[in-house]
Amino acid sequence: MTPIIKLRGILALVGITLNTLLMIGPLYLFALLRLALPFHPVQVALARVLVVIAETWMAVNNAIISLTSGVRWRVEGMEGLARREWYLVTSNHQSWADILVLQKVTNRRVPSLKFFLKQQLIWVPLLGLAWWALDFPFMKRYTRAQLEKHPELKGKDMETTRRACAKYAHFPVSVMNFFEGTRFTRAKHDEQDSPYLHLLKPKAGGAAFTLKAMGGQLHKLLDFTIVYPPNTTRSLLGFLGGAMDEVQVIVHQRPIPDWAADGDYENDPEFRARIQGWISEIWAEKDALIQSRLSA
Q1: In the beta sheet, which residues pair with residue 248?
Q2: What pLDDT, on a 0 to 100 scale, did the predictor assign at position 226?
Q3: What are phi and psi of 221, to 5 degrees?
Q4: Is the pLDDT of residue 192 over 70?
Q5: Which residues lie closer than 8 Å to 96 by C-beta, 6 or more apart?
Q6: Cβ neighbours for 180, distance < 8 A, ≥ 6 positions apart
């Protein structure tokens, strides 16, 4: 990266930080009101106010990114999306910039993205409480060893997440899950011996967990494919500073099979193979799409 790109990236980060500090006060205020007024109509109304604050935060971030990055956006497949629909959202994952890219193209086009987070992330300064206020589900997953030692914990993680998702019945959401589970690097790709050129192996368990926790409420998958220019940095600073002259985002709307929310991924081998096959087909198509765009 050149010094000017680094400088623009730093200025963008400063702007996003100031925007966060500005918006966090009103967010906390309405979150406290929601905590103090446990009446259903008030809860729903205040939840909508919190979403408006989050969407305003994203809109300001998008304006900052436009000023510093100069990225040309090529976005395909957003036609027909609705803010009154419930979606499961996934994407290939290459950089921390992916989250800003997804917020850029989805903000005020679909319901705000809700990320499933590890329970420990609630302690992240400022943001942890903001995520809690915005109803991001905090998951506590137990390992097989923990369940063997404490069998009474079996099913607790699903029940906790299901309770967190119950409030989504009252207003539409877009539940975000990176199927790869981590950012792509060549080292991770080689370590996995991934069958794909540009993707890591997808982890179907996360998708199955999300669909089951939502109790069959998700019927459409928004499958985002992000294509950055070849031979450019994938860093967040580079994205913000203008190292990428163009970003392509291709969206496929896919129906979620009815059976996908009903199975037991951990204990039913047949269901596990079925949902793995479904996601593997999507991933093969995505990999071919990325290759075609990079080769064009």
Answers
A1: 74, 227
A2: 97
A3: -105, 125
A4: yes
A5: 183, 235, 236
A6: 92, 93, 199, 200, 201, 202, 203
Q: What is the mean pLDDT of the chain?
A: 89
Give dist(CA 131, CA 110) in Å, integer: 18
- Residues in the chain, how many? 296
Whose tokens are 């499961």? That residue is: 88
Write out the two tokens for 68.
């510093």
Q: Residue 230: what are its φ and ψ, rounded to 5°?
A: -65, 150
Quickly count: other Cβ atoms within 10 Å of residue 117's Cβ: 17
Mean pLDDT of 230-255: 93
Give the other-Cβ count within 10 Å of 10's Cβ.
14
Whole-angstrom distance, CA of residue 14 vs CA of residue 47:
28
Q: Is the pLDDT of residue 67 over 90?
A: yes
Query: What are the two backbone dihedrals, phi and then psi, of residue 251, each rounded to the nearest 5 degrees?
Result: -115, 130
Q: What DSSP line would sit under the chain, residue for residue?
A: --HHHHHHHHHHHHHHHHHHHHHHHHHHHHHHHHHH---HHHHHHHHHHHHHHHHHHHHHHHHHHHHHH-PEEEEE--TT--TTS-EEEEE----THHHHHHHHHHTTTSSPEEE-EEGGGGGSTTHHHHHHHTTPPEE----HHHHHH-GGGTTHHHHHHHHHHHGGGGS--EEE--TTSS---HHHHHHHT-SSSS-PPP-HHHHHHHHHHTTT---EEEEEEEEPPTTS---HHHHHHT--SEEEEEEEEEEPPGGGGT--TTT-HHHHHHHHHHHHHHHHHHHHHHHHHHH-
Strand pairing report for 174-176 and 87-91: parallel
Write out pLDDT tens, residues 130-151: 988 888 887 766 666 766 676 7
Q: Beta partners for 221?
A: 88, 254
